[in-house]
Amino acid sequence: MTPMIALRGHVRALSFKPFVLFASIILFLMVMIALFAPWLAPTDPYDLATLDLFDSHLPPSWMSGGDARYFLGTDSQGADIMSLLMLGLRTSLTVGLLAVGLSVLIGLTLGLLSGYFRGWIETVIMRAADIQFTFPAMLLALLIGGLARSMFPVNKQESSAFFIVVLALGISHWPHFARLVRAAVISEAGKNYVMASRLAGRGHFGILFRHVMPNSLNPVFVLATMDIAFAIMTEATLSFLGFGMPASQPSLGTLIKVGYGYLFSGEWWVVVFPSAILIILLVSVNVFGDWLRDRLDPKLR
Protein backbone atom coordinates (compact mmCIF):
# COMPACT_ATOMS: atom_id res chain seq x y z
CA MET A 1 0.00 0.00 0.00
CA THR A 2 1.46 3.35 -1.04
CA PRO A 3 1.65 6.20 1.51
CA MET A 4 -0.91 8.23 -0.47
CA ILE A 5 -3.45 5.37 -0.49
CA ALA A 6 -2.86 4.79 3.23
CA LEU A 7 -3.34 8.51 3.91
CA ARG A 8 -6.61 8.55 1.98
CA GLY A 9 -7.76 5.55 3.99
CA HIS A 10 -7.01 7.32 7.28
CA VAL A 11 -8.80 10.49 6.13
CA ARG A 12 -11.83 8.45 5.05
CA ALA A 13 -11.88 6.66 8.41
CA LEU A 14 -11.61 10.01 10.17
CA SER A 15 -14.77 11.25 8.45
CA PHE A 16 -16.78 8.55 10.26
CA LYS A 17 -15.72 9.89 13.67
CA PRO A 18 -17.28 13.39 14.00
CA PHE A 19 -15.76 14.18 17.39
CA VAL A 20 -12.30 13.00 16.32
CA LEU A 21 -12.65 14.93 13.07
CA PHE A 22 -13.60 18.09 14.97
CA ALA A 23 -10.63 17.64 17.35
CA SER A 24 -8.31 17.05 14.39
CA ILE A 25 -9.49 20.21 12.65
CA ILE A 26 -8.97 22.21 15.86
CA LEU A 27 -5.50 20.72 16.25
CA PHE A 28 -4.64 21.49 12.62
CA LEU A 29 -5.80 25.10 13.01
CA MET A 30 -3.75 25.51 16.19
CA VAL A 31 -0.66 24.15 14.45
CA MET A 32 -1.18 26.55 11.53
CA ILE A 33 -1.68 29.50 13.90
CA ALA A 34 1.48 28.57 15.78
CA LEU A 35 3.43 28.13 12.55
CA PHE A 36 2.44 31.53 11.16
CA ALA A 37 2.06 33.33 14.51
CA PRO A 38 4.64 36.10 13.80
CA TRP A 39 2.63 37.11 10.72
CA LEU A 40 -0.88 36.47 12.08
CA ALA A 41 -0.44 38.26 15.41
CA PRO A 42 -2.19 41.68 15.33
CA THR A 43 0.71 43.32 17.20
CA ASP A 44 4.22 42.54 18.38
CA PRO A 45 3.86 42.25 22.16
CA TYR A 46 7.65 42.14 22.59
CA ASP A 47 8.30 45.46 20.87
CA LEU A 48 8.44 47.90 23.77
CA ALA A 49 8.20 50.85 21.40
CA THR A 50 4.65 49.84 20.43
CA LEU A 51 3.37 49.23 23.97
CA ASP A 52 1.36 51.92 25.71
CA LEU A 53 0.70 51.69 29.45
CA PHE A 54 -2.51 53.64 28.90
CA ASP A 55 -3.78 50.55 27.06
CA SER A 56 -3.03 48.22 29.99
CA HIS A 57 -5.69 46.16 31.79
CA LEU A 58 -8.24 46.62 29.00
CA PRO A 59 -11.02 44.00 28.97
CA PRO A 60 -12.04 42.13 25.78
CA SER A 61 -13.49 44.37 23.09
CA TRP A 62 -17.07 43.15 23.59
CA MET A 63 -17.09 44.23 27.26
CA SER A 64 -17.65 47.67 28.67
CA GLY A 65 -14.40 49.61 28.55
CA GLY A 66 -12.91 47.39 25.86
CA ASP A 67 -11.04 48.60 22.80
CA ALA A 68 -11.78 47.32 19.29
CA ARG A 69 -8.02 47.03 18.65
CA TYR A 70 -7.68 44.36 21.35
CA PHE A 71 -10.28 41.65 20.81
CA LEU A 72 -9.23 39.62 23.88
CA GLY A 73 -8.05 42.55 25.96
CA THR A 74 -4.59 43.51 27.19
CA ASP A 75 -2.29 42.64 30.08
CA SER A 76 -0.60 44.87 32.67
CA GLN A 77 1.93 46.12 30.09
CA GLY A 78 -0.64 46.96 27.44
CA ALA A 79 0.29 43.93 25.33
CA ASP A 80 -2.43 42.36 23.17
CA ILE A 81 -3.64 39.08 24.72
CA MET A 82 -4.47 37.56 21.32
CA SER A 83 -0.93 38.19 20.06
CA LEU A 84 0.53 36.75 23.26
CA LEU A 85 -1.65 33.64 22.88
CA MET A 86 -0.52 33.05 19.30
CA LEU A 87 3.16 33.37 20.18
CA GLY A 88 2.74 31.42 23.42
CA LEU A 89 1.02 28.60 21.51
CA ARG A 90 3.95 28.60 19.07
CA THR A 91 6.43 28.25 21.92
CA SER A 92 4.47 25.48 23.69
CA LEU A 93 4.05 23.41 20.52
CA THR A 94 7.70 23.90 19.54
CA VAL A 95 8.90 22.78 22.97
CA GLY A 96 6.55 19.78 22.90
CA LEU A 97 7.60 18.66 19.43
CA LEU A 98 11.33 19.06 20.03
CA ALA A 99 11.19 17.40 23.45
CA VAL A 100 9.30 14.39 22.07
CA GLY A 101 11.68 14.28 19.10
CA LEU A 102 14.61 14.05 21.52
CA SER A 103 12.84 11.36 23.57
CA VAL A 104 12.11 9.36 20.40
CA LEU A 105 15.71 9.70 19.19
CA ILE A 106 17.17 8.44 22.47
CA GLY A 107 14.51 5.81 23.14
CA LEU A 108 14.42 4.48 19.58
CA THR A 109 18.21 4.08 19.41
CA LEU A 110 18.52 2.40 22.80
CA GLY A 111 15.41 0.26 22.24
CA LEU A 112 16.72 -1.02 18.90
CA LEU A 113 20.10 -1.90 20.36
CA SER A 114 18.70 -3.61 23.47
CA GLY A 115 16.01 -5.54 21.59
CA TYR A 116 18.24 -6.77 18.78
CA PHE A 117 21.56 -7.52 20.47
CA ARG A 118 20.14 -8.52 23.88
CA GLY A 119 22.75 -9.71 26.41
CA TRP A 120 24.65 -7.17 28.49
CA ILE A 121 23.58 -4.28 26.24
CA GLU A 122 19.93 -4.99 27.02
CA THR A 123 20.68 -5.40 30.72
CA VAL A 124 22.50 -2.06 31.02
CA ILE A 125 19.93 -0.08 29.02
CA MET A 126 16.86 -1.60 30.67
CA ARG A 127 18.28 -1.25 34.17
CA ALA A 128 18.99 2.42 33.44
CA ALA A 129 15.39 2.78 32.26
CA ASP A 130 14.11 1.03 35.41
CA ILE A 131 16.11 3.38 37.62
CA GLN A 132 14.73 6.41 35.78
CA PHE A 133 11.19 5.03 36.11
CA THR A 134 11.53 5.26 39.90
CA PHE A 135 11.57 9.07 39.63
CA PRO A 136 8.42 10.98 38.66
CA ALA A 137 8.91 12.61 35.27
CA MET A 138 8.12 16.06 36.68
CA LEU A 139 10.74 15.82 39.43
CA LEU A 140 13.29 14.43 36.99
CA ALA A 141 12.64 17.30 34.57
CA LEU A 142 13.08 19.77 37.43
CA LEU A 143 16.36 18.09 38.43
CA ILE A 144 17.76 17.98 34.89
CA GLY A 145 16.63 21.54 34.22
CA GLY A 146 18.20 22.77 37.45
CA LEU A 147 21.53 21.04 36.75
CA ALA A 148 21.62 22.31 33.17
CA ARG A 149 20.72 25.84 34.27
CA SER A 150 23.53 25.85 36.84
CA MET A 151 26.07 25.24 34.05
CA PHE A 152 25.25 28.58 32.41
CA PRO A 153 26.22 32.01 33.78
CA VAL A 154 23.37 34.05 35.22
CA ASN A 155 23.25 36.41 32.24
CA LYS A 156 22.85 33.45 29.84
CA GLN A 157 20.25 31.45 31.73
CA GLU A 158 17.23 33.28 30.32
CA SER A 159 18.40 33.03 26.70
CA SER A 160 19.18 29.32 27.11
CA ALA A 161 15.92 28.48 28.92
CA PHE A 162 14.28 27.12 25.75
CA PHE A 163 17.03 24.56 25.14
CA ILE A 164 17.18 23.63 28.83
CA VAL A 165 13.44 22.89 28.94
CA VAL A 166 13.62 20.81 25.75
CA LEU A 167 16.61 18.86 27.13
CA ALA A 168 14.95 18.26 30.50
CA LEU A 169 11.69 17.05 28.99
CA GLY A 170 13.41 14.97 26.32
CA ILE A 171 15.66 13.11 28.74
CA SER A 172 12.90 12.57 31.30
CA HIS A 173 10.71 10.45 29.00
CA TRP A 174 12.99 8.32 26.80
CA PRO A 175 12.49 5.06 28.80
CA HIS A 176 8.87 4.79 27.62
CA PHE A 177 10.02 4.73 24.00
CA ALA A 178 12.97 2.44 24.71
CA ARG A 179 10.75 -0.20 26.32
CA LEU A 180 8.16 0.02 23.57
CA VAL A 181 10.73 -0.29 20.77
CA ARG A 182 12.59 -3.10 22.55
CA ALA A 183 9.41 -5.19 22.78
CA ALA A 184 8.61 -4.56 19.10
CA VAL A 185 12.17 -5.42 18.00
CA ILE A 186 12.19 -8.66 19.99
CA SER A 187 8.96 -9.64 18.25
CA GLU A 188 10.29 -8.73 14.79
CA ALA A 189 13.78 -10.20 15.22
CA GLY A 190 12.44 -13.77 15.36
CA LYS A 191 10.50 -13.55 12.09
CA ASN A 192 11.42 -15.30 8.86
CA TYR A 193 12.42 -12.22 6.90
CA VAL A 194 15.10 -11.43 9.48
CA MET A 195 16.40 -15.00 9.33
CA ALA A 196 16.48 -14.79 5.53
CA SER A 197 18.40 -11.51 5.66
CA ARG A 198 20.99 -13.07 7.94
CA LEU A 199 21.37 -16.06 5.63
CA ALA A 200 21.79 -13.66 2.71
CA GLY A 201 24.81 -12.20 4.48
CA ARG A 202 23.44 -8.82 5.51
CA GLY A 203 25.13 -7.15 8.44
CA HIS A 204 23.46 -6.62 11.80
CA PHE A 205 23.03 -2.88 11.43
CA GLY A 206 21.72 -3.26 7.88
CA ILE A 207 19.07 -5.68 9.10
CA LEU A 208 18.31 -3.54 12.15
CA PHE A 209 17.83 -0.20 10.42
CA ARG A 210 16.57 -1.31 6.99
CA HIS A 211 14.19 -4.09 8.00
CA VAL A 212 13.48 -4.31 11.74
CA MET A 213 13.15 -0.60 12.54
CA PRO A 214 10.55 0.30 9.86
CA ASN A 215 8.32 -2.53 11.10
CA SER A 216 8.61 -1.33 14.70
CA LEU A 217 7.63 2.32 14.21
CA ASN A 218 3.81 2.19 14.36
CA PRO A 219 3.58 2.07 18.18
CA VAL A 220 6.27 4.76 18.34
CA PHE A 221 4.15 7.14 16.23
CA VAL A 222 1.18 6.58 18.53
CA LEU A 223 3.14 7.10 21.75
CA ALA A 224 4.92 10.14 20.30
CA THR A 225 1.60 11.76 19.38
CA MET A 226 0.20 11.28 22.87
CA ASP A 227 3.52 12.22 24.47
CA ILE A 228 3.35 15.66 22.84
CA ALA A 229 0.40 16.41 25.13
CA PHE A 230 2.44 15.21 28.12
CA ALA A 231 5.41 17.39 27.12
CA ILE A 232 3.24 20.48 26.61
CA MET A 233 1.48 19.94 29.94
CA THR A 234 4.79 19.37 31.77
CA GLU A 235 6.34 22.45 30.20
CA ALA A 236 3.29 24.49 31.22
CA THR A 237 3.60 23.19 34.78
CA LEU A 238 7.33 23.98 34.90
CA SER A 239 6.68 27.48 33.54
CA PHE A 240 3.89 28.04 36.05
CA LEU A 241 6.29 27.06 38.85
CA GLY A 242 8.93 29.43 37.48
CA PHE A 243 11.33 26.78 36.14
CA GLY A 244 10.29 26.86 32.47
CA MET A 245 10.14 29.53 29.80
CA PRO A 246 11.07 33.12 30.76
CA ALA A 247 8.74 36.10 30.48
CA SER A 248 10.68 37.33 27.44
CA GLN A 249 9.71 34.16 25.53
CA PRO A 250 6.45 33.10 27.15
CA SER A 251 4.63 29.85 26.57
CA LEU A 252 1.03 29.15 27.53
CA GLY A 253 2.24 28.09 30.98
CA THR A 254 4.09 31.37 31.48
CA LEU A 255 1.02 33.36 30.43
CA ILE A 256 -1.11 31.40 32.91
CA LYS A 257 1.42 32.08 35.66
CA VAL A 258 1.45 35.82 34.93
CA GLY A 259 -2.33 35.99 34.57
CA TYR A 260 -3.01 34.09 37.79
CA GLY A 261 -1.91 37.12 39.80
CA TYR A 262 -4.72 39.18 38.26
CA LEU A 263 -7.48 36.57 38.50
CA PHE A 264 -8.88 37.78 41.83
CA SER A 265 -8.63 41.44 40.87
CA GLY A 266 -11.33 40.95 38.23
CA GLU A 267 -9.03 40.79 35.20
CA TRP A 268 -10.01 37.20 34.43
CA TRP A 269 -9.22 37.40 30.72
CA VAL A 270 -5.45 37.47 31.37
CA VAL A 271 -5.51 33.91 32.75
CA VAL A 272 -8.74 32.37 31.39
CA PHE A 273 -7.87 32.61 27.69
CA PRO A 274 -4.38 30.99 27.98
CA SER A 275 -5.88 28.27 30.22
CA ALA A 276 -8.68 27.60 27.74
CA ILE A 277 -6.25 27.37 24.80
CA LEU A 278 -4.02 24.96 26.76
CA ILE A 279 -6.97 22.72 27.67
CA ILE A 280 -8.31 22.66 24.11
CA LEU A 281 -4.83 21.87 22.76
CA LEU A 282 -4.27 18.98 25.20
CA VAL A 283 -7.72 17.49 24.60
CA SER A 284 -7.30 17.72 20.81
CA VAL A 285 -3.89 16.03 20.89
CA ASN A 286 -5.14 13.24 23.17
CA VAL A 287 -8.27 12.59 21.09
CA PHE A 288 -6.22 12.45 17.89
CA GLY A 289 -3.65 10.20 19.59
CA ASP A 290 -6.34 7.77 20.77
CA TRP A 291 -7.78 7.57 17.25
CA LEU A 292 -4.32 7.07 15.75
CA ARG A 293 -3.66 4.21 18.17
CA ASP A 294 -6.89 2.53 17.10
CA ARG A 295 -5.99 2.95 13.43
CA LEU A 296 -2.41 1.70 13.64
CA ASP A 297 -3.03 -1.22 16.01
CA PRO A 298 -4.71 -4.05 14.05
CA LYS A 299 -5.91 -5.67 17.28
CA LEU A 300 -8.08 -2.62 18.03
CA ARG A 301 -9.72 -2.31 14.61
Give a written overview of the molecule.
This protein is mainly alpha-helical and 301 residues long. It has one domain (73-300): Orthogonal Bundle (MetI-like fold), CATH 1.10.3720. It contains 14 helices and no strands. It has helices at 3-14, 18-35, 37-40, 81-117, 119-133, 137-150, 154-157, 161-172, 174-189, 192-199, 204-212, 218-241, 252-260, 269-296. Helix 4 (81-117) packs across helix 12 and helix 10 runs antiparallel to helix 11. The longest helix is centred in the first third of the chain and has 37 residues, at 81-117. The chain is elongated. The two termini are 18 Å apart. The model has no long low-confidence stretch (mean pLDDT 82).
Pick out its properties.
301 residues, mainly alpha, MetI-like fold, MetI-like_sf
Any chance you could write out the topology, listing elements then pairs?
Blueprint: H1 3-14, H2 18-35, H3 37-40, H4 81-117, H5 119-133, H6 137-150, H7 154-157, H8 161-172, H9 174-189, H10 192-199, H11 204-212, H12 218-241, H13 252-260, H14 269-296
Number of strands: 0
The name CATH uses for the topology is MetI-like fold
Structural class determined from secondary elements: mainly alpha
Low-confidence stretches: none
Q: Give the terminus-to-terminus CA distance.
A: 18 Å
Shape: elongated
Q: Write down the domain tally.
A: 1
* CATH class (first level) name: Mainly Alpha
Oligomer: single chain
- Helix count? 14
The CATH architecture classification is: Orthogonal Bundle
Radius of gyration: 23 Å
Binned, the helix content reads: 55-70%
* Biggest beta sheet attributes: none
